[in-house]
Each structure stands twice: as C-alpha cells, then as structure tokens.
Amino acid sequence: MFAYIVRRVLATIPVMAIVALFVFSLLYIAPGDPAAVIAGDQATPDDVERIRASLGLDRPYLVRFGAWVWDIARGDLGVSIFTNLPVSTMIQQRIEPTLSLMIVTLILAITVAVPMGVVAAWRQGTTIDRAVMAFAVLGFSVPVFVVGYMLAYIFALELDWLPVQGYTPFSRGFWPWLQNLILPAIALGSVYIALIARITRATMLEVLQQDYIRTAKAKGLGQRAILFVHALKNAAVPIITIIGIGLAGLIGGAVVTESVFAIPGLGRLTVDAILRRDYPVIQGVVLLFSFVYVLVNLAIDLAYTLFDPRIRY
Amino acid sequence: MLRRDLLRTGAAIGGAAALPSFAIAQPAQNRVLKMVPQANLTSLDPVWTTANITRNHGHMIYDTLYGLDAQFRPQPQMAAGHVSEDGGRRIIITLRDGLKFHDGTPVLAKDAVASVSRWMKRNPFGQKLASLTDSLTALDDKRLQFNLKRPFPLLFAALGQVSNSPAFIMPERLASTDAFTQIREAVGSGPFRFKADEYNSGSMVVYTRNADYVPVSTGTPSLTAGPKIVNFDRVEWHIITDAATAAAAIQTGEIDWYEQPPPEIQQLLRRNRNVKIEAIDPLPLTGILRFNHLHAPFNNKKMRQAMLPAISQSDFMQAIVGTDPANFNAATGFFTPGTPMANDAAMAALTGPRSIDRAKALMQEAGYANESMRLIGPTDILAPSAMTQVGADLVRRMGFNADIVLTDWGTTVQRRTSREPVSAGGWSMLFTAFSSFDFANPAAHFPLRGNGAGAWFGWPSIPKLEELRDAWFEAPDVAAEQRLGREMQEVAMDELPYIPVGAYLSLTALRSNLSGRVPGLALYWGIKRD
Questions:
Q1: Which of A125, A184, B267, B451 could form a disulfide linkage to A261, CB 3.0–4.6 angstroms apart?
Q2: Alpha helix (H) residue ranges in B399-438
C-alpha cells in the first residue's frame, strides 16, 4: 500500500509538468494583454509598450517558460503582475474561504443525499421515491446562481436569518463562520445532492436485488441494518467515485457561488486573474487545482479499499 | 433568462428588504464606512497605472501640492503658498507646516521634487510641464523651486490635476522609483492610511483615519481643494462583483455606499427609502467613437465625416443610462458639458437632423468600396459595451462591410494597440468613455491630440490640433483659452479624431443616513453618518 501511494504521488510530477506546459502555452497564445489593462484607458501606446517591457512580457516564449519553470522548481509560484504580491500569498489569503465552502457543501451533500438515495431505493415506486427523484431533477436543472439568489431572497432578505454576502474567518468563531456559508453551501450543494442521491438510489436498487440481501432478510435482520450496514457498504464504491468527481466539480461550482455571495475564495481569484490576464496567478491557481484533483483521485482510490476488501494495491 | 434580467430579479430580492438586518447599532460600527467600489484595487501605484480605482485609492492616502475646486481652480493644499519671480519663470512653492507621512517622517521639499519629477514622466499634463521646466529643485526642507523656460500659468492646475494620475506626493525613497516600475508600498501623507496587513485584492481594502493629518485651515471642501475633514475611523472597500448582491447588501445595511450600480439596479434602489441615488460627479462622462486613422476606410476624412449624420447621441446614451434625459446630454462636443471649455462650435453636425440615408450617400461620395472594417468592443464593461452594441447596429444599417468583434475588456485593450490593417488583425473603430476631468480642457485631453504615432490609440495626425493645443497652454486668460477651445472643436469636428457620442452622469447609491459627500469622485472626507 505504502509503495502504491509513493508511486501515485510520484506520478503527479509528470502530470503537473504537462499541466504546466499546457497552461503556460495556452496563456501565451490567448488574446489579452496585462500591460494594456495595467496602463488603463488613458495610457498611450508607448506607455503600454514600456510597461510590457518592464514586466518582461516582450521576452520570447521559451525564455519566459524557462524562467517560470525554474521558479516553480524552486517552489516559487511568482508574483502577481498587478498587485506585486507573491502568488503563494494570494492563494493563502483565498484558500480558507474556498476550503470552508467545499467542506460545508460536501458534508451537507453527503449527509442529505446518501440517506435520500437509500430511502428512495428502499421505497422504490412510492411517493417518497418520486419526491426524491423530482428533487434530483430540480437540483440538476436549476443553475447554482438562481438557487443562490432565491436563497438570499428568502433567508437573508425576507426572513432576515442569514447575511447576504461575505465571509468570516473560522478564527472569529464557529457560528459567524458558519452563518456566511450556509446559503452558499446549499446553493452549491443542490446539484451534488441531486447527483449523489440519484447514484445512491440506482446503486442501492441493484444491491438490494442481491442474494446476500435476501439472506440477511431471511436471518431476520432489521431494515436499518440491512440498508446501512449490508447494502450501503456494498454500494459504496460507485457512491465514493461520484463524491470524488463531485468534489473536483465543486471547484468549478465555487467560482459562481463565490461571485453570487461575494466570498473571497480561489474561484473569484481565478476569474479576476483571467479577466485581467494576471498570468502568474492563473498559472499558480491552475497548478494548485490540478494538484488537488490528483490528490482527490488518489484519496478515492484508497477509500475503495476501506469498503471493498477485494481491492488491494 | 438574460443575465440582466437575472440581475434585476436579484436586485428585486433586495428591494424586499424592509429593515436593516446586519447594521448592528454599535458606536464603533458607526465610525466604519463600508462601500463597494467601482472595481477591484489591483495596483497601489497611481503613477504606474491610470486606472480610476487606483486614482481613488491615491486620493485616500496621498495629498497633492495643490487641489482643484469644483470650478477647476487650483487652491493650495500641501502648499502654504508660492511666490513668482523673474516674470513668472521662477516659481517657489513653500510647504505648509505639520505635513507628515504615514511612516512618521516629515514631508520635505525633496519628497515633493521626487514625486513631481516621477509624475512628469507619465502624465500628459506633467510631460508638458516637464518640457517647459529647466530645473526643479529643493531649496531647503520647506521650499521647492521650478525654473521655467517661460511663464506657465497652468503650473498649479497641473500640480492639482484630479484624474489620470494626479501629482501625488510620496516619500522620496518611493518616488525615486522608475516611473514604469510599480511601487510596492502605499505611504502617503493624506487623510487616510492604507492597511497593508488587511489588503486582500479582490476582496477587501481597508483604510484608517490618519490621526496626524492636519487639514488646511481655510476654505470649504470642494473636489480636492479645501479642508479634508474625515468623519470615519475606518473605511472598508468590499469588492462585490455581482451587482444584485451589492444591491441587496446596501439595502440590508451590510454596506453603506455602492459606487457604481448599473441602471437597472438604480431603478430598484430608488424604491428603497433607506437608499438614495445621486450623481457622483455633477459633470458627465463623455462617450466617444474612436477611429483608426491609419487604415481604410477611416484614414479617409470624408469617410469619417460620413458617420456624422448617422450619430444619434440620444441612442448611445440611452443604451447606457436609460431613457431619463436628466441623466445624459445629447449635444456633447469635444469638451465636457458644463465646463468652461465646452462650446457649440460646429455642433450642428451632431445636433441637426439625423439621417442614415444622408450618411449612406456621404459614404458613396467618399468612395467607399466595400472595404472591410472591424469594430472592437468589450462585453463586460457597461458603457463601452452598450455603445458598441448601438454602434454595431449603426454600421450594419449604414451598409459597412463590418466585422463586429466583441470580447472581454482584457482582449479589447490588447487589440486596440494593434497598428495593423484589418486584414492582419487590426481594427477600425471602437467606443469608450472618459471622465469629466479628462475632457475638461486640452491639457489632459489626449483623444483630442493629433500627434500621429505618439497619439492615443487610433493615431490621428492633425498638426493644426497640436498647434492650437500648444497655443492653449500659452493662453494668458480664460477668455483666450475658451477662444482656442472653440477653434479646437471646429478643427476636430472637421478632422474627426473621434466623434463624441454623448455624455452621461455616473450615479451612485448611498444609505440615506450619509451626508456631506464631496461631489466629483468617490472621496471620503466630508462624508458623515447622521
């Protein structure tokens, strides 16, 4: 197992290298000019040229790529063209809100969706099942930002229970931290609740047809034990897979949610950086996201072994 | 559902808010002003970039030797006064007492010299001043001296310039940085201190009141002139990119001031008695249609003139601010309406009867041979985007072989730097807008320049405009300046470096319990909570 983990971690190096090459090349050929954005609307063309030169943006592709790779190899993600702040500092400033949003969303999605899917499968064809499926369709169909606006309308403005926007660091207390995340987490989580609930239901339906479930029933085991101990454990592998995929997808979803609820996370950092062509920040964040994707996939693979003893690495 | 519709829905959400929910009534909170600025603050150096948000940041933490009042008259600000010697060729400015930088060091004449010298390398008005300056030196700690080639009556107006990189005074150690290299620190002597430890670009910018700041003792607050009296201990800029979220936040009292709500949001905010909408600047911004003078079809003066009968300033302005005529001016010339230079010379070409047919006929007379033209514009910035949409419809109706390229702002500003012909990725036409200060007079008015390759994007070569501009700098009085302004407009209306497509007010939203705001820009002195 340890050797497997080491192999997988080492395998991230060529993956990251390919991502780095791809991201750098894509940004190099993409339209847009940070020097023109920096110079502002009142700047003359000469001003733009001089700023471009001062930023080193007029250097050849290979020179710029080489310098960037050399910095990355030394653990230096570079400095933002605009703010002059180290990219690592900017990521550090933004990582807590995004991580908090993802954790709360994931906890919410799993604790709601898995029981929903199990109960829907158990009560297949009943009103409960149809209600769960209707919710799933709704969760898939309504965009995150629409859900966000509706939640803000009901719970922030009408009922006055929760704030409209912003983020409070965890260091200022659990409740202040959580109250800023509840609405965004529900908005972001709605699609994942729908996804996980559907997969859980489908997988559970298949498992509940198996002989060993019939045996468990014949032995006189209670419904709860059959569903959550025997059936759910055997249905876990596809559910974990989909949770893993969902976790990766949360990063994309966070971009919209963070904008709607003005949460200063990595999603907004990425969008802002793209809009103003802050290349070092874009590159740094994409590398980070890629690394997270790789780690999530590794974690999923390892999680399989907990639920299916037949899987060994 | 269109995004704008959704924003409207989102803002309507805010409209339902009856009571402020998070404006917790605590004395400390009353000393905090929370606002949503027009954009994210990405650069701290107001000389390095001309971005308006960095200019506003500059007015928070820096001060200038002279301020400009609402009538654009220079008034001493950091200066105690000046003496003029040798027939105006030697100007000695004395700093007033009590000036201190935020790092605790006193403001000395050498700091002012270094700051003004750096500014003169980047700012157009400053460059003009530099061309007339033999030397700028610190005589001692309190006095700096300009030795001029000839008298320059506009010296103090230049030093008090409000927009487009004002001549902010910073410590010499920072001001000695190359003008094309960004300064990393934000240390000034202005009424607010920048909280670097709380700066989170894209999320929050924090300023605290500078307890050591000594406002000028005379006058009344007017634009950047007069005493800068601060009534808040702390100002927080909350960067909220989503308009509906910002609208909801101001209605719940989570924020106090929303600098630039879009028109559909303004309409909804007007319904909330806890929020007031007012013009941030009593003078309007001007929208322009800029031609690329290097290539066909608009390297032909007659082709540019052919556009004139088709331009309806009302159409362009309504696309930006809606149909209320109180919010726009549809008889806008080359200078900001309401300023001394604004005039009606040759304006009949824009205010007379509008006719697409007449424009088409002029196109044919000009010899239009179906050359392709490219209109570039952004989709993500309100005013240029709206004007581009109207312009795209216009050039199609006129029968141009038009390629409309709509991109994000980052791409537009890159593409406009191209001097290539359309076939090689260049452009023919674009729309953008400038603040009232930029077009108030010829000094900072670079789209009105005709200096060819050195001109603003579009690169018109109109020697007569340059002659008149030079003469304007030498004008002995306002009457002479105005006469030259008329002449410049006549030449411009004939040569058309660009076409003015109207002027519009920028409206801002504040909580009703705020008063005392100084009009002009988002300025933070004077304003208080009742």
A1: A184
A2: 409-415
The full set of domain ranges for chain A reads 2-73, 88-307
Residues of A in contact with B417 (CB under 8 A): 33, 36, 45, 48
CA atoms within 13 A on the CB side of B227: 12
The phi and psi torsions of B208 (rounded to 5 degrees) equal: -120, 155
Helix (H) or strand (E) holding B76: strand B74-76
Three-class SS of residue B236? strand
- How many alpha carbons fall within 13 Å on the CB side of residue B416? 37
pLDDT, tens digit (0-9, with 9 covering 90-100), for A86-123: 999 999 989 999 999 999 999 999 999 999 998 999 88
| Token output for B378 | 């952004």
CB B501, CB B287: distance < 8 Å:
yes
Q: Which residues of A touch B244 (CB under 8 A)?
A: 149, 260
d(CA B203, CA B25): 24
Query: Quick check: ipTM above 0.95?
Result: no
* Nearest C-alpha neighbor of B107 from the set B158, B193, B176, B172: B172
Q: In which residue are the tokens 């079809």 written?
A: B297
Tens of pLDDT, residue by residue, chain B (530 residues): 344 444 444 444 444 443 333 333 444 667 999 999 988 888 899 998 888 899 999 999 999 999 999 988 999 999 999 999 999 999 999 999 999 999 999 999 999 999 999 999 988 889 999 999 999 999 999 999 999 999 998 999 999 999 888 999 999 999 999 998 889 899 999 999 999 999 988 889 999 999 999 999 988 999 999 999 999 999 999 999 889 999 999 999 999 999 999 888 998 899 999 999 999 999 999 999 999 999 999 999 999 999 999 999 999 999 999 899 999 999 999 999 999 999 999 999 999 999 999 999 999 999 999 999 999 999 888 899 999 999 999 999 999 999 999 988 878 887 888 899 999 889 999 999 999 999 999 988 989 999 998 899 999 999 999 999 999 998 988 999 999 999 999 999 999 999 999 999 999 999 999 999 999 999 999 999 99
* DSSP bridge partners of B500: B288
- Site of tokens 């930002």: A145
Residues 6+ apart with CB under 8 A from A131: none
C-beta contacts of A273-278 below 8 A and 24+ residues apart:
A273/A80, A275/B380, A275/B408, A275/B409, A275/B410, A276/A34, A276/A37, A276/A82, A276/B42, A276/B410, A277/A27, A277/A32, A277/A33, A277/A34, A277/A37, A277/A81, A277/B410, A278/A34, A278/A80, A278/A81, A278/A82, A278/B42
Q: How many whole angstroms separate alpha carbon B47 and alpha carbon B32?
A: 28
Chain A hits for B411, Cβ within 8 Å: 31-32
Q: How many residues are listed for chain B in this entry? A: 530
H helix intervals, B416-499? 463-474, 478-495
Collapse the DSSP code of B145 into the 3-class scheme (helix H, G, I; strand E, B; otherwise coil) and give the result.
strand
Q: Could you tell me if A28 lies within 8 Å of chain B, comparing CB atoms?
A: no
Instruction: Say which of A40, A165, A268 has its CB closest to residue B254.
Output: A165
Distance CA B462, CA B493 (A): 12
Residue pair A262/A163 in contact by the 8 Å Cβ criterion:
no
To the nearest whole Å, the CA of A150 is away from the closest chain B CA by 8
Q: Kindly write down the DSSP assignment for every residue of B83-100, as one continuous string.
A: EEEGGGTEEEEEEPTT-B
Q: Which CATH topology does A88-307 take? A: MetI-like fold (1.10.3720)
In the block, tokens 């670097």 appear at: B196
Sign of the Cα torsion B362, B365, B367, B370 reads positive
Contact between B248 and A164 using a beta-carbon 8 Å cutoff: yes
